[in-house]
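Inputs:
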Amino acid sequence: MQLTLHVDGAERAVEAEPRETLADVLRTHVGCEHGVCGACTVLVDGEPARACLMFAAQAQGKSIRTVASLSRGEELHPLQRAFIEHHALQCGYCTPGFLMLAASLLERVPNMSDEELREALSANLCRCTGYQNIVKAVRAAAERMR
Amino acid sequence: MKPAPFTYHAPRSVEEAVGLLHQYSAEDGRVLAGGQSLVPAMALRIATPPHLIDINEIAALRILRAENAWLRIGALVRHSAFERPVVDGPLGELLASVVRHIAHHPIRTRGTFCGSLAHADPASEWCLVAATLGAELVARSVRGTRTIVAGDFFRGAMSTALEPDELLVEARLPLLAKGTRFGFYEFSRRSGDFAIVMALVVRDQETWIGVGGAEAYPRRLREAEAAADPAEAAASAIRPLSDPHYSAAYRRDVVRAAVRRALEQCN
């Protein structure tokens, strides 16, 4: 199928089979490929979604945001800086998914309680950090962005 | 893994969708709504439908509104729509309280209320809500429209009264009278994980008790509602599922505790 996708503010023409997911055409990180781990999380019309559970054909006409949209050139997004400063990543495989999950959280509910934040971040899996530093980083970025 | 190849259809109207479903259901053509259960099943090759009928572009299926004494929920209403009360009064609060137990927000932005009912996982929260409240389910096919009451809808694990060529276009939940109280208790191992057992209690003049996760499909336990000790009665009324992780006896114990805790929330 010939598809036109709106990715990070640009129109992209792609050729994809119906069975190819949004994760396949964007080439996001994929962990489980069945919706459990959240490594492929992107924003679809501003809402976080698992790119591995959406077929690329379904993304036509929607605005897709990936981790590549966060930095402005060399200047990292406050979330990205906070992840570095708080050691919120080790191997980095889950990081793009966590960043997009967190970006959508901070846009949706800027003043999240600690409990809500932990609950929201439980959507994605990280096997390195034990999550504590991810929680700290997102909290720090939330304060910086306020 | 990757899903097996299929032909993709994106109908623009309900008529077109049920026409396609009629044409392809005999060879296991499936409806694609939120895709949060079907697509994982396809990725694992548990499901290999040769045709997918994607209903996401059918605007008429986005209906979500209170009408007469019912809340009408169209086939494209996502779980996340219920995160804030969709109607004033106890029903909106009940749905907002239950939805927090359904997977995680990024799944809730895609998965649909009606899709959960049609999928009929024994651990589905919405199936329990539909069964306990006595939902009406509206099925559409090329033969016309019929309404199925929740008590007749669920037939077994992942099994419903829908014919292969029927599309669940709408679910209707009764608006609850002002002052109706409710309690919902779910036991699962991890945040967002499948329920091992859950209980929903709704109380106004009378008390309704529904249990899900414990049996092949959720149901209202009228025998427990009338009992002196409803939690004990619920535990003995069920025929629990059993698997290597959670034995029938264990599930029975959890039912007792879940019903008791849901009842306490009503006080």
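The beta strands of chain A are 2-7, 10-15, 41-44, 47-50, 63-65. Flag for discussion at group meeting.
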